[in-house]
Amino acid sequence: MVVVACGTVVVASWDKTRNQKTVNNWKRGRQKGVAGVLGAALLCAIHGATVENTLFEDGDGANTFRAFNPTQAEENYSMVTANYFWSQIFGVAFSNKRWLHFFMLFVPVTGLWMSALGVVGLALNLRAYDFVSQEIRAAEDPEFETFYTKNILLNEGIRAWMALIRNQWVFPGILLKKIDTIRPVDWN
User: Fold this and answer.
1) What is the spatial distance between Cα 120 and Cα 26, in angstroms, rounded to a whole number?
2) What is the protein's membrane topology class (predicted)?
3) Measured between alpha carbons, how far is 92 from 84 in angstroms, rounded to an integer?
4) Domains in the chain, ordered, with CATH?
5) What letters, b where the CB count within 10 A reaches 16 and e where it falls short, cover 43-60?
6) Using CA atoms, how far apart are residues 49 and 100, in angstroms rounded to an integer?
7) pLDDT above 60: residue 22
8) Arithmetic mean of pLDDT, 95-114
9) In the chain, which residue ranges form alpha helices assigned H by DSSP?
């Protein structure tokens, strides 16, 4: 169930932005953060299930790790069995426990940092800054809006709105007659 939920969220977030050139880096960072955190939850769940399913000594006072009980002769789960199980599911296995636990630490921490950077970037309204030259992107895609083209479109929109009939001033007839009688000043 966890695998299906994580996979659905990751694929949905990836599919949502793969064809959009205008999606900003901050939104992608936030999506990487979500994928990292959910991926870490998936890793931890798989790790816990693997350790539980590869226990071979379940006696009184037996711990999973020797470090918790110095009198325990050996660890009571099989890294070889866990590696085999992992490689059968994903096709990849970790070479030792340190690499496995480092990876399980690295994925969520990286995901949380990416998510935090994405949220801070959106909170500070940094989504307008792509760190990519907008003019280069505009040359590749004529529909891509830069700050310059957005300003032009905004001004054109304001002019078009002001040109509507309902926004034009309607002067009383008396004023119109007086305005027509005034000669414009010739400055030449």
Assistant:
1) 9
2) Multi-pass membrane protein
3) 9
4) 2-131 (1.20.85.10), 132-188 (no CATH)
5) beebbeebbeebeeeeee
6) 14
7) no
8) 80
9) 2-17, 25-53, 79-90, 97-123, 134-140, 147-162, 173-181
Q: Please check whether residue 49 is in contact with residue 81, taking contact to mean a CB–CB distance below 8 angstroms.
A: no
Specify the residue for token string 């340190």: 98
What's the chain's length in residues? 188
> C-alpha distances in angstroms, 132 versus 22, 53, 135?
11, 49, 9
Give the amino acid at 77: Y
Half-sphere exposure (Cβ direction) of 109: Cα atoms closer than 13 Å: 6
pLDDT band at 74 (very low <50, low <70, confident <90, very high): low
Q: Tell me which residue has tokens 């950077």.
A: 117
Q: Which residue has the higher pLDDT, 35 or 147?
A: 35
